[in-house]
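Give me the fold.
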Amino acid sequence: MPFCNRAYDASNAPVRISWFNDRVEISSPGGPYGQVTVETIGQPGLTDHRNPTLAGALNQLGFVQRFGVGIQIAKARISQNGNPPLEYQASFAAVVAIVRLNS
């Protein structure tokens, strides 16, 4: 859930969802946080909370089922749909998830 993990302290930039002819890009301001790094992003069970209060509230409201499994669920659904694998572009400034569309 990009809204839960984004950085709110450095920028007021919104999470952006951009549709193109061949892909959808979801850009979340703020790079990986804590034990999640550019190198480890997407590893099963690896999680850290930049916004623990927001994360807890989203969990209590039912928007977050379990912490640390969102990327694996997204990868599984994308695969089940027959799309190419989920891609990432992670930097200090943002994380971009790229969902390529079927040809």
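Residues 4 and 53 are 10 Å apart (CA to CA).
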